[in-house]
Design goal:
The chain is α+β, with helices and mostly antiparallel strands. The chain has one helix at residues 2-28, and strands at 30-36, 45-51, 54-59. The chain has one domain (2-59).
């Protein structure tokens, strides 16, 4: 009887731990975020490389003029 109850509980805990670790891996991965500073994303974009909540590198003036 305990094996029938324990197996779904173990499976649920395993899936929960996997989801938590996958979420933390995703938040620590490197992301590229493109935003516009002056509401003109084509001529004046800003590109930020982020890892988690911290900005690693920011590019503001790279577009051709």
């Amino acid at each position: 009887m305990l094996t029938h109850i324990g197996s779904p509980v173990f499976t649920t805990l395993t899936i929960l731990i996997f989801c938590i670790s996958a979420r933390s891996f995703q938040t620590n991965s490197l992301r590229v975020i493109i935003t516009d500073q002056n509401s003109d994303a084509v001529t004046n974009p800003t590109i930020r490389l982020k890892r988690g909540d911290s900005v690693i590198k920011e590019f503001k003036e790279f577009a051709e003029k």
